[in-house]
Amino acid sequence: MSEAMASLPATTAGVKRRDGAAGDRIFYWIVFGCGLFVLVALFTAAFSMVWDGFLAFRTFGFGFLTGMEWDPVAQRFSGLVPIYGTLVTSALAMIIGVPVSLGIAVFITEVAPRSIRGPIGGAIELLAGIPSIIYGMWGLFTFAPFMSDYVQPVLIDWLGPIPVIGALFTGAPLGIGMLTSGIVLAIMIIPFVSSVTRDVFLVVPAQLKESAYALGSTKWEVVRDIVIPHTRTAVVGGIFLGLGRALGETMAVTFVLGNTHNIAVSLMEPGTSIAATLANEFAEASDDLYRSSLSALGLILFVVTFIVLAAAKLMLVRMARQKGE
User: What is the pLDDT at residue 98?
Assistant: First the structure.
């Protein structure tokens, strides 16, 4: 009897180990399926756009990427104009938004009193949660008139006569256009970039900063020589996250870009982007070639975004190797 009682705990432990192994296998296959779902969804989306856009590429060939004509009546389509608009507005958003985002993150983590760090951080999170269509409506009804009445006339008068760069600031102060769209996009990406940057700035070891202050460094020197070098990999990742958001933004850009199929050097002129073209015209595409051309534009946007994010990943890996991580 005593021997049977002594063997009971060992038997119970063996049952627990078998149950734990079965649970681990189930857990493994569940999370494996979740990870595989991402790849399946990615390749399914890519395949569907390739399949739907094949007719446009077969009809127009390489000219679809280089032509400027977009005429649904004559059944002639090309994607250079929306590609150009997407790249220009995204570049403007990054030029404006990244410095502001870094400034916000530095202010919250290094300069601001503790009493206002929370409210400012909360406001940043609220900006990230506002739907893009709200940004578009605000841009069209509030910001575009402000640009037309106060900002664009000054830029045209002061910067327009300057050689070379003056070509970027010529035209009529319409309010809508590339510049307005770029500024609205910058406002939209600021919460994402600044939130990521703030979080990584907060994990910088306090000993490093305190040592720099003890040696007589100023706040600017600490940020420049300690904080940013220590977190540059994550900062670059946050910047490219904002770029991915800017490339694919639809509704806000559609409201303020102007939606005209023309390429103009001036940032004051209206234009269009891939996302705006899809939003405006997909419901009106009444024939196969029209729908295929729009799907081909979606495929181009997919490829551009994929290339940008892949380049960011390679850059982060290289930077991590240089740091010995």
Answer: 94
Alpha-carbon distance of 221 to 43, in angstroms, equals 46
Structure tokens at 7: 């063997």
Rounded CA-CA distance 104/111 in Å is 10
For 190, the token pair is 């600021």
Q: Which percentage of the chain shows pLDDT scores above 90?
A: 56
* Residue 312's pLDDT band (cuts 50, 70, 90): confident
- Give the span between the Cα atoms of 94 and 168, in whole angstroms: 17
Joined together, the tokens standing for residue 36 give 């595989």
Angle at 238 between CA 278 and CA 224, to 5 degrees: 140
Task: Give CA separation, 176 vs 81, 149, 166, 172, in Å.
Answer: 17, 12, 19, 10
Residues 105, 198 contacting (CB under 8 angstroms): yes
Angstrom distance (rounded) from CA 222 to CA 100: 19
Per DSSP, the chain holds a count of helices (H) and strands (E) of: 14, 2
| Tally of CA atoms within 13 A in the half-sphere of 68 that contains its CB | 8
Q: What is the rounded CA–CA span in Å between residue 302 and residue 57?
A: 16
Nearest C-alpha neighbor of 271 from the set 188, 176, 132: 176
pLDDT for the residue 1: 46
How many beta carbons lie within 10 A of that of residue 163, not counting itself? 6
| SS3 assignment, position 76 | strand
C-alpha–C-alpha distance, residues 163 and 325, integer Å: 47
Detail the DSSP E strand segments found in 64-161. Answer: 70-71, 76-77
In this structure, are residues 179 and 147 in contact, taking their beta carbons and an 8 Å threshold? Answer: yes
**Percentages (nearest 5) of helix, strand, coil residues in the chain:** 80, 0, 20
Tokens of residue 242, six digits: 């904002």
> Whole-angstrom Cα distance, residue 227 to residue 100?
17
- Write down how long the chain is: 325
Q: Helices marked H in 215-287 — which ranges?
A: 219-222, 228-248, 251-256, 274-281
Ranges 8-17, 102-111, 136-145: which has the least confidence: 8-17
